[in-house]
Amino acid sequence: MKARPLIVSDCDGVLLHFIAPFVDYLREVHGLTLRMDSFALTGNVKQADGTPVPASAFPPLLDGFFADWMHNQHPIAGAADALGLLARECDVVVLTNIAGHHADRRTTELARVGMPYRVIGNQGGKGAPLRKLLDEFQPSETIFIDDLPPNHASVATHAPHVHRLHMVAEAEVRHLIPAAPDAHARHDDWPAMLSHIETILKGKTP
Questions:
Q1: Cα(14)–Cα(92) distance, rounded to whole angstroms?
Q2: Higher model confidence: residue 35 or residue 37?
Q3: What is the mean pLDDT of the chain?
Q4: pTM of this prediction?
């Protein structure tokens, strides 16, 4: 069987909105606020008196969001249509930094909004799990999409030949994240991203 291209995409901030529903979750469930003064969730979650929530309290808040609020995450504009077009000729895998026990729920939620793709839960850098996917699929071309610069650095270390595309689709944090130095290009909307990927798949240099 002829090898197909492989698209490996992040989820939060690339396929699904995270910031707005997380703000709603913190307010409605815990009476907390989130102020994006910097691109770091820890330290920006505030109690009613304005003091930061202790760093030790943040992981349970995030786990509770994914356990109870994931159904309130809405798709990024154009994501489902773009991946649907790409999936005609490519394999698509969602590599997302969530605890493994949330991966099945995320698979269900993505399928519900038109993105029925395999989901892999991960913690930390994405280079090593991407390397495993390359060994599994043996793709003709691989494209990695993520919003966090450290993940591009990780992939560049483990699989330098992979084409790395930086995307920050949520306007709330776009100004806080500089272009990833280890990415080949950045596009913050799916029409531009799709055009770039199609150019790569045609064997051209964008």
A1: 14
A2: 35
A3: 93
A4: 0.94
Report whether 39 contacts 176 (CB < 8 A).
yes
Q: How far apart are CA 53 and CA 32, in angstroms?
A: 9
Rounded to an integer, what is the distance from CA 168 to the centroid of its chain? 9
Burial class (CB in 10 A: 0-12, 13-18, 19+), 112: exposed
Cβ-contact 115, 86 below 8 angstroms: no
Secondary-structure class of domain 6-17+76-201 per CATH: alpha beta
> How far is it, in rounded angstroms, from Cα 21 to Cα 200?
33
Least confident window among 21-25, 43-47, 140-144, 197-201 = 43-47
What gap in Å lies between CA 182 and CA 57, rounded to an integer?
32
- Please report the beta strands in the chain, taking only residues with DSSP state E, as ranges in sequence order: 6-9, 33-34, 45-46, 91-96, 118-121, 142-146, 163-166, 185-186
* Rounded Cα gap, residues 5 and 3, in angstroms: 7
Q: Distance between CA atoms of 113 and 23, rounded to whole angstroms? A: 21
Sign of CA dihedral 129, 130, 133, 134: negative
Q: Delimit the domains of the chain by residue range.
A: 6-17+76-201, 19-71
- CA angle, 45 as apex, 108 and 19 as ends, to 5°? 40
